[in-house]
Design brief:
Blueprint (H helix, E strand, L loop, with lengths): L17 H11 L4 E4 L3 E4 H17 L8 H5 L3 H27 L9 H6 L8 H11 L1
Antiparallel strand pairs: 1-2
Length: 138
């Protein structure tokens, strides 16, 4: 169902939340710019991405739909610290995997046979070592 374009002074049938306020410009003119104080310029499309990043950050910190930032701030410090540390560990694991892929290693940090061949080390390995690397790297 198409969103209705409201006229000035006309009442809305839903709460005026950011998601709803941006629905029409995102649909009709996503590349149009929003200018704030002649210093910041964003297209509606880019602004939506920034809002999503903020929402993801708040979710990472433990904010749930319907809660306000003040609700999370009231959580015990130990609980907030635990949530933050869990997320940091997840991010570190993701970063390690990105590093491994960039180096040509498998998910355990072992160079793949292709990588060893590219850097000229494959020929120096014994048949047993080659077999073990093939077994470990799949």
């Amino acid at each position: 169902m198409a969103e209705k374009n409201h006229q000035p002074g006309e009442n809305y049938r839903y709460p005026l939340i950011i998601k709803k306020l941006l629905a029409t410009p995102l649909r009709d003119s996503p590349d149009r710019q929003i200018v704030y104080s002649d210093r910041h310029r964003y297209t509606y499309k880019d602004f939506e991405k920034r809002i999503a990043m903020l929402a993801n950050g708040l979710t990472t910190l433990g904010l749930r739909p319907g809660e306000t930032v003040a609700d999370v701030q009231c959580a015990p410090t130990a609980e907030k610290r635990e949530i933050l540390m869990k997320r940091r560990k997840e991010q570190l694991r993701e970063l390690i995997q990105v590093y491994y892929r960039a180096r040509g290693w498998n998910s355990s940090g072992i160079p793949t046979p292709e990588t060893l061949k590219q850097i000229g080390l494959w020929g120096f390995l014994t048949a047993g070592t080659r077999a073990k690397i093939l077994e470990m790297t799949g």
